[in-house]
Amino acid sequence: MNSKPLVSVITIFLNAEKFIEEAIDSVIAQTYDHWELLLVDDGSTDNSTAIAQRYVEKYPDKVRYLEHQDHENRGMSASRNLGIGNAKGKYIALLDADDIWLPQKLQKQIAILDSHPEAAMVYGNTLYWHSWTGHPEDSQRDYMPELGVQLNTLIQPPTLIKFLIQGGGAVPCPSNFMVKRQIVEEVGGFEETFRGLYEDQVFLAKIFLNTPVFVESGCREKYRQHKDSICYTSQDTKQEYTARRIFLNWLKEYLSKESFKNPKLWSALQKELWRYNHPTLQYLRNRIRYFVKLMKKQ
User: Fold this and answer.
1) Of 30, 169, 174, 166, which is closest to residue 110 (Cα–Cα)?
2) Is 100 helix (H, G, I), strand (E, B) or coil?
3) Interatomic CA distance for residues 73 and 14, integer angstroms
4) Nearest CA among 205, 31, 32, 216 for reference residue 113
5) Would you list the DSSP string of 117-175?
6) Between β-strands 213-224 and 35-41, what pairing exists: parallel, antiparallel or unpaired?
7) 3-state DSSP call for residue 85?
8) Which of 70, 84, 185, 187 is least surrounded by CB atoms within 10 angstroms?
9) Cα separation of 211 and 267, whole Å?
């Protein structure tokens, strides 16, 4: 019997034939070999279903294929929960079907969680990956954001929640973090009413509010930037604005239900909610501030 802790890798996908093989291959290339890969099909209609099933045939002891009843499309949160519900590992690591891991991702993050048993989650930095295209104009666009906290440190709750409310530091991408399965189950997994945008931030909010998180200095994954991703397609529409308002109102209800009393947290949330619930007044306020600055410069 293998004495090393098992990691359950969960990759959800929907029509991901362009990139899913590269994602899966980055799991197979891990220097840490005690993992299982759960490929969760969210109702794909392209060739990605067949690709996933080929990997199951090739690696039957390591890779499993899951889908919703009747091959239904139920959204990202329900798909992640389907993977979590079938996971056997001590740890959960998510890898989105258009991202890739660097080879030591699992080895390094497991070592951190094993050496900091009080930590529920570990995350580090992310490479925002434009250069995957091979185009000369994209070769200089890759970057890593500022995380906004002291690195290689165990951060106590609810410190990190401020990044979800008011910014000031990068929020970890799903492909970035590793979390204890017991903790995922205790917080109730992902909220299935969030089918797409902000589904990860809702989950992170529950972790950040309730458990210590270790923030490491390493970068373990490449977050592919492309025009078909949900974040890209929403950035020039009202969809992102609406999704954030829904998230902030969900967070308000969650804090009330769980009886969080932190005054600074409530103040920051109420301030941010006001901006999203009163967009016209917020616009006028910003214009007034702009003209006041101009007057002071004269």
Assistant:
1) 30
2) strand
3) 8
4) 216
5) TT-SEEEEEEEEE-GGG--GGGTT--B-----S-SSEEEPTTTTHHHHHH-SSPPPPTT
6) unpaired
7) helix
8) 70
9) 21
Task: Report the candidate in 44, 38, 34, 7 with the shortest Cα–Cα distance to residue 24.
Answer: 38
Q: Can you give the length of the chain in residues? A: 298
- Taking a C-beta distance cutoff of 8 angstroms, is the pair 103, 30 a contact? yes
Q: Which of 17-26, 115-124, 210-219, 229-238 has the lowest mean pLDDT?
A: 229-238
Q: Is the dihedral of CA 12, 13, 18, 24 positive or negative?
A: positive
The one-letter amino acid at 19? F
Domains recognised in the chain with CATH numbers: 7-232 (3.90.550.10)
| Parallel, antiparallel or unpaired: strands 91-94 and 63-67 | unpaired
Query: pLDDT of 56-100, one tens digit each?
Result: 999 999 999 999 999 999 999 999 999 999 999 999 999 999 999
pLDDT digits (tens, 9 = 90+) for 247-293: 999 999 999 999 999 999 999 999 999 988 877 665 555 566 555 56
Residue 243 φ/ψ, nearest 5 degrees: -65, -40
Count of C-beta atoms within a 10 Å radius of residue 220? 25
- For the chain, give the percent of residues with pLDDT over 70: 90
Question: In Å, how far are 103, 126, 173, 238, 261 from 222, measured between CA atoms?
Answer: 11, 6, 10, 27, 37
CA distance 248 to 237: 18
Instruction: Sort 62 into a burial class: Cβ within 10 Å, 0-12 / 13-18 / 19+.
Output: middle
Q: How far apart are CA 14 and CA 97, in angstroms?
A: 8
Residue with tokens 């890969």: 37
Tell me, what DSSP letter sits at residue 88? -
104-125 burial, b at 16+ Cβ within 10 Å, e below that, comes to ebbebbbebbeebeebbbbbbb
